[in-house]
Every structure is written in structure tokens, then in C-alpha cells.
Amino acid sequence: MGGGGIMIWGGISYFGKTDIVYIEGKMNSKRYLNLIKEQISKHARCIKKGRFIFQHDNASVHQAKIIEAYFSSEKIRVLPWPARSPDLNIIENCWGELARAVYRNGRQYDNVQQLKDVIVEKWNNLPQDTVKKLYKSLPNRMLEVVENGGSYTHC
User: Rounded CA gap, 66 and 17, in Å?
Assistant: First the structure.
């Protein structure tokens, strides 16, 4: 038993979350482009309230020319991203919360579909107040990274 894994994608904003999307097979720039177009369109109200700046890391599919061209053509601002900066990517904290909820008390699953169902349930139940607190923590995180010469925060 055990082994294997699943790949998921999700997005957050101060005002809401996207759906969890399961990635089957290898992600490439065309698949990533379709995914972000679909999710931005589907969740435009919660994503685009106020000022909207898209954040992703430096994964090669995120930096592909067709991705940059899409953001440019849609006039979507993209946050410039430093090379090694997981402490500034607050969705990493959300993934941690999600993993703790999914595997609370050492819970294991009998099959992949059961795991997927629980992931969606726990993601949907992640309080928006938790996400808002993470956004509010960004100025302090940035300052701490600068004070630490680009190194990690205490978070």
C-alpha cells in the first residue's frame, strides 16, 4: 500500500479561492495557460476585486513566452519573483494547512478518489480569514527576508 501521488493546482486571493484542479500527466506551458485562463475567468469576481497582481513562482512553465504574452495581452500584472523565496509565497502556508487537515491524526486513504474528495472538502473549508491573515502578514515577511539578507523568515 502507499506510494504514488497526485498533483494539484489552486489559487488564492484576499477575497476568495479558486477550485482545486488535479493535474494529470506532465504540466506544460499550453496546459498551464488553459488552466489559468479557465480559473481566472471562472473566479474573476473573487480574484479581481480591487487591484489584481498574479503571483506564481519561477517554474519553467510559468515563465514560458506564451504565458508572458497572455498576461501582457490581458494587461494582467505579474509579481516579479525572486529565485528562492518560499517564505514570501503565502499559498505555501495554505498547502501546509491543507496537508495537515487532510492527514490529521495520521489519516490514510484507501484510494486516490477518496483522497481527492477529501482534498477538495478541506480546501473548500479553508477559512478565508486564514488567507486574509496571510496576506496581511506579507509586509512583515518581506521586511524579515530583507533583514535576513534574503534568507528565510521565522514563519
Answer: 25
Task: Give the pLDDT band of residue 152 (cuts 50, 70, 90).
Answer: low
pTM above 0.70, yes or no: yes
Of 70, 78, 82, 71, give the one whose Cα is nearest residue 54: 78
- How far is Cα 109 from Cα 141, in angstroms, rounded to an integer? 35
Which value, to the nearest 10 degrees, does the dihedral of the CA atoms of residues 49, 55, 61, 65 take?
Answer: 80
Q: What per-residue confidence (pLDDT) applies to 51?
A: 65
Output the pLDDT for position 6: 87
Tell me the C-alpha to C-alpha distance, in Å, between residue 130 and each of 3, 17, 31, 86, 133: 31, 12, 30, 18, 5
Phi and psi dihedrals of 74, rounded to 5? Answer: -90, 0
Nearby residues of 135 by Cβ (< 8 Å), 6 or more positions away? 14, 90
